[in-house]
Design a protein that fits this description.
The chain is 40% helix and 11% strand. The protein is of the alpha/beta class. The N and C termini lie far apart (59 Å).
């Protein structure tokens, strides 16, 4: 004779909690469907530079977050030097063969800063000559590295990021790792002086080891119109697999802001003032790099 089936009472309060819980599956599915509906209906906004905050928040940052949290295990220091509101110019060292350091900096400021600030990075011309990359860069808040765009962003109270080394920094050989290249003519200092906004030095340790550049195929680079064509221990030897960055340990630190409101905006045209401030920023970042390297230790030691 079959035993009677037991009836287990359903806790309706618990079930309702599971459905409505912000981190629950139902909530995520509902949020995703609402996001798709808004996109199809055109119910979203972009600014004059092409920045799409909703797409950045719901698609682009989540794609980058696993790299930030699990692969590079990024630690942030000195976040108190980043203002909760208002404009500032974040100036960092650039490295890594491919400019992944910029997007990791962007994720960190959005996720780990109390005000979840969006960093508006200034990118090189080459970025905006590559169709898909240019579109994604604009959508994520980046814009062309020019004085006009930087000034407009700062006037709007945005947090702007710049890498004065440019391709000289990101494309330098592994043998010169963590040695800063020239900071150009100090255009970023002149922009900060005109806008009267603080310059925040930023040091990034970890990017140098992700694609150690051991050679440069210059004839091929000229043929393709690239500033360099790198050879690393894994690229091009292992093909597409060689594009996977090595899982180095990253640390990013922000230094005390360097005030520019103590100067007259007209001093942006004074070459000596611009040179001295540029040298101060560069020296500060170089010393911060040495300090972070000592604190980090081996690049591939798993915690």
């Amino acid at each position: 004779m079959r035993p009677e089936a037991q009836v287990i009472p359903l806790n309706t309060d618990a079930a309702e909690h599971l459905v409505r819980e912000p981190g629950g599956l139902d909530h995520k599915v509902a949020s995703a469907l609402q996001f798709v509906r808004r996109r199809l209906a055109g119910e979203y906004e972009i600014d004059e530079f092409g920045f799409d905050p909703e797409l950045n928040e719901n698609v682009l940052l989540p794609l980058l977050r696993p790299l930030y949290e699990r692969w590079f295990r990024v630690e942030m220091f000195g976040m108190e030097h980043i203002p909760d509101t208002g404009s500032a110019l974040v100036v960092g060292n650039h490295s890594g063969t491919l400019p992944i350091d910029g997007v990791m900096l962007q994720v960190g400021l959005h996720d780990d800063h109390p005000a979840h600030r969006n960093l508006r990075l200034l990118g090189a011309d080459l970025v905006y000559q590559i169709p898909v990359l240019a579109h994604l860069a604009r959508k994520s808040g980046h814009t062309l590295a020019c004085q006009a765009d930087a000034s407009r962003l700062l006037a709007q109270g945005q947090l702007v990021g710049v890498f004065p080394e440019g391709f000289k920094g990101v494309g330098k050989p592994f043998s010169e790792r963590y040695r800063l290249q020239r900071f150009g003519r100090g255009g970023f200092v002149a922009t900060a002086l005109r806008a009267q906004v603080p310059i925040i030095p930023c040091a990034i340790v970890g990017a140098e080891e992700i694609y150690p550049k051991i050679a440069d195929l210059k004839p091929l680079a000229r043929l393709l119109g690239f500033p360099y064509f790198p050879v690393t221990p894994t690229w091009p030897l292992f093909g597409l697999l060689g594009l996977v960055p090595l899982p180095s340990k990253w640390m990013i630190a922000f230094g005390e802001p360097i005030r520019t409101d103590e100067y007259d905006p007209a001093q942006a045209e004074d070459h000596m003032t611009v040179f001295n401030l540029t040298d101060q920023v560069r020296e500060t970042i170089q010393n911060m790099l040495y300090d972070l390297l000592r604190r980090r230790g081996p690049a591939f030691l798993r915690a």
